[in-house]
Write a structure and sequence with these properties.
Elements: E1 3-14, E2 20-31, E3 35-39, H1 46-53, E4 61-66, E5 69-70, H2 76-86, E6 87-90, H3 102-106, H4 108-111, H5 119-131, H6 147-159, E7 165-169, H7 177-194, E8 197-201, H8 205-208, E9 213-218, E10 221-227
Parallel strand pairs: 3-8, 3-9, 6-7, 7-8
Antiparallel strand pairs: 1-2, 1-4, 4-5, 9-10
The structure holds adenosine-5'-triphosphate and magnesium ion.
Length: 232
C-alpha cells in the first residue's frame, strides 16, 4: 500500500487528575488517493482521532506520520507549516466569517496577512469557487448563502493550497439530504480528479457506503475496518 498517513500505537488520555482514556493503541494506515470514512457512536473518539491525525491535538503516546514525515518532534511552527502544505480541514460548522463574501472567505488566510493579494491567488479563488459551483454567489456574504453553499465555500477554502490530504469532521452533518449528496459528490469528484486523499467522519451510513473504506471506532478502538467493494 502506498500510504500517505500512518498512525502508530496512538493513545489519548484526557485530564490530569481524573484521567479518561479516549483512544487505545490505534494503528491505522491510509492509502494515498483513497476516500475513507470514519463512523461510530457519539463519544467513541472519532473527532479526537481526526484532530490527532491532523496534528491539531497531540496524542498521549504514539506516532503520526504524514507523507513519510514523522511529526513527533516537530515544534508549533513546523507543525503549522506541515499542515499548510499537506492538510486541508473541513468541519461540521464551516467557520466562515458571515459578513465576508464567499470569495473573501476562501482567501481569508491571505487577507489577514496584510499583504496585497497576487493575481495568482485571486485566480485560484475564482477557479475553486467555480469548481464547487458557486460562481453566481461568490460575491454574496456568507450570511446570505444556503448551508450547502457555505459548506462548499469551506471546501473551496480547504482546497486552496491544493493539499494532498483533506480531513473532514461531519462535513455534511448540518445539511439536508439533497445538499449532503451535492457536497459529498463534490468531495468524491475532487478525490477522483486530483487524487486528493480524503478521511471523512460521517454518521450517515449512506455516505459511508459510497466510500472506499469504512473504519468504525468503538470505545476508542478500531472495531471494524471494511474495504468497500460497493463504492463507486
Ligand atoms: N478536551 C477534552 N477533554 C476531556 N475529554 C474530552 C475532550 N474532548 C473529548 N473528550 C471526550 O473524549 C471522548 C471522545 O470524544 P470525541 O469528540 O472524539 O467523540 P466523537 O466520536 O467525535 O463524538 P461525536 O460523534 O459526538 O462528535 C468523549 O467521551 C469526550 O467526552
Ligand atoms: Mg465528533
Amino acid at each position: 500500500m502506498d500510504k500517505i498517513i500512518s498512525l502508530k500505537n496512538i493513545n489519548k488520555i484526557y485530564g490530569t487528575y481524573i484521567k479518561t482514556q479516549v483512544l487505545f493503541d490505534i494503528n491505522l494506515d491510509i492509502e494515498k488517493s483513497s476516500f475513507s470514512s470514519i463512523i461510530g457512536q457519539s463519544g467513541s473518539g472519532k473527532s479526537t482521532l481526526l484532530n490527532i491525525t491532523g496534528t491539531l491535538d497531540k496524542p498521549t503516546s504514539g506516532d503520526i506520520i504524514i507523507d513519510e514525515i514523522n511529526t513527533k518532534n516537530m515544534n508549533k511552527n513546523q507543525l503549522s507549516e506541515l499542515r499548510n502544505q499537506k492538510l486541508g480541514f473541513i468541519f461540521q460548522f464551516h467557520y466562515l466569517l458571515p459578513e465576508f463574501t464567499a470569495y473573501e472567505n476562501v482567501l481569508m488566510p491571505y487577507l489577514i496577512k496584510n499583504k496585497p493579494l497576487t493575481d495568482k491567488q485571486k485566480e485560484r479563488a475564482y477557479y475553486l469557487l467555480d469548481m464547487v459551483g458557486l460562481s453566481k454567489v461568490k460575491n454574496n456574504p456568507a450570511s446570505r448563502m444556503s448551508g450547502g453553499q457555505q459548506q462548499r465555500t469551506a471546501i473551496a477554502r480547504a482546497l486552496f493550497n491544493n493539499p494532498p490530504i483533506i480531513l473532514a469532521d461531519e462535513p455534511t452533518g448540518n445539511l439536508d439530504s439533497d445538499s449532503s449528496k451535492t457536497v459529498f459528490d463534490m468531495m468524491r469528484d475532487i478525490n477522483k480528479e486530483y487524487g486528493t486523499t480524503f478521511l471523512v467522519i460521517t454518521h450517515d451510513r449512506r455516505i459511508a457506503d459510497k466510500t472506499d473504506r469504512i473504519i468504525e471506532i468503538k470505545d476508542g478502538k478500531i472495531n471494524l475496518d471494511l474495504k468497500n467493494g460497493g463504492a463507486e
